[in-house]
Amino acid sequence: MSQIQSLLLKRRENIPFRVSLVYAFFSIVWIAFSDRILLAIIDNVELMTTVQTAKGWLFITVTTLLIFYLLKKEISEVKKIEEALILSEKMLSISHLASGMANQINNPLAGIVQNAQILRNRLTEVGQSNIRAAEETGVDLEKVIEYAEKREIARILNSIVESGKNASDLIERMMDFSHEGSRQKVMVNPSGLLNSTIDLLKQEIRFGKVEVFREIAEVPPIPCDVQKLKHAFYHILSNAMEASVGQGIEPGVWVEMTAQGKGVEISVTDKGAGMTEKDLSRIYDPFYTTKSGAMGIGLPIANFIITEIHKGKLTVYSHPGRGCRVVIFMPQ
Questions:
Q1: What residues contact residue 98 under an 8 Å CB cut-off, 6+ apart?
Q2: What is the DSSP letter of 261?
Q3: Which helix (H) or strand (E) segment is 252 a member of?
Q4: Are residues 115 and 89 in the same domain?
């Protein structure tokens, strides 16, 4: 059972207890204090009966509203956890699919790189095997090499090899990013997770021109679920990069990491359009978004991972036209 499932089950089981406890406490306080106050100020029996009746109806109205509010709040929290659970499972399924596809792509990619290297060697180098093959076929090897130089065949093949290696490195980072692991918290230096997530996002075409300014200090390791924390970093950083694209300014994101007390503080700042107070108050609502074409699930998932799973803190500061700053605190 995952941590999100355990939290959901615990929350469901606690609903009757929470509601009953609040109702019992309110009832005891109401009966004890209201009766004493009435007896102290009212001597008339008929008036006391009328007041007691009115008090009973008031008690029913207040407790009904109170129970309705408590149930609505608890159900809302459970619904949020259920949505986070569904999204988490979907993300895990996608990560498994990406990992399987990466393995299938790696094999032909390695063949392309290897054969391009062999072709380059056979067309541009004077080796014993090349000399022997040229003599057997009556070909002037020097002329072949000269032709290859004039047609820049070596440069083209080197470009193929370099592109293949870059693609292989990207696939390796994707596999590392999507690796599920043991789901157990381990002591990890978060700077490595943060840097690898930035590097992964920079490989995306839409973020290629976004400059990421890093000020990542030496920090102590923290206990974390590696996979989930990577997902949280990914959502926060991708939001910041998206906000920096198409704003008529030089696209840039500032990432800082420092040791703060008994933990680590990470801040991600962009110079995007920013948010109003109304938008800021709803940023953790699932599926709420101010961007067209977006799902509005990134920040709610990141907030759940950081606050509920890792017992950290996530704070967002923003003003219209002045960008956004996300501050994460991860305890040791």
A1: 174, 175, 178
A2: S
A3: strand 252-259
A4: no
Type of residue found at 74: E
At residue 184, φ and ψ (nearest 5 deg) are -100, 145
The CA distances from residue 81 to 2, 209, 235, 305, in Å, are: 12, 36, 18, 11
* Domain membership of residue 74 as a residue range: 3-95
Answer whether 0.85 is exceeded by the pTM. no
Burial of 17 from C-beta contacts in 10 A (0-12 / 13-18 / 19+): exposed
Tracing tokens 């070596």 back to the chain, one arrives at 154
Among the listed residues 272, 289, 284, 278, the one whose alpha carbon sits nearest the alpha carbon of residue 325 = 272
Q: Say if residue 111 is in the same domain as residue 47.
A: no
Count of C-beta atoms within a 10 Å radius of residue 187? 10
Tokens 């996530």 locate to: 314
- Tens of pLDDT, residue by residue over 85-118, are 666 666 566 666 666 667 678 778 888 888 888 8
How many domains in the chain? Answer: 3
The pLDDT tens digits for 224-274 are 888 788 888 888 888 888 877 765 666 788 899 998 888 899 999 888 777
